[in-house]
Amino acid sequence: MYVEISSNGVKITATDGIGFSKPIDISPTKDGILEKKEFTMHEFLYGEAAGPPYQSITVRTEGNRAL
After folding, report:
1. pLDDT tens digit string along 28-63?
2. CA 33 to CA 28: how far, in whole Å?
3. Is 1 within 8 Å of 11 (Cβ atoms)?
4. I want to staple 10 with a disulfide (CB 3.0 to 4.6 A). Which of 25, 26, 32, 52 is the partner?
5. C-alpha closest to that of 64 among 36, 25, 39
6. How far apart are the first and last CA of the chain?
7. Element holding 9 (H helix, E strand)
8. Beta bridge partners of 21
9. For the chain, which residues make up each domain, given as ranges?
């Protein structure tokens, strides 16, 4: 998994280890606040809930910063 944090938001690229990868961009809202995102790795890659909790990805924000 690759995470890039910038003033324009957060870009995450995940891979399943067998060649499939998927990017997601989390951009600030018009007031500059980043939306909190929380999902499992499986949901992120395939769009359906599955997998143990330790595979979860959480983007936490404070004001306009990703933590």
Report:
1. 666 666 666 666 666 666 666 555 544 555 555 555
2. 5
3. no
4. 26
5. 36
6. 16
7. strand 9-15
8. 15
9. 2-66
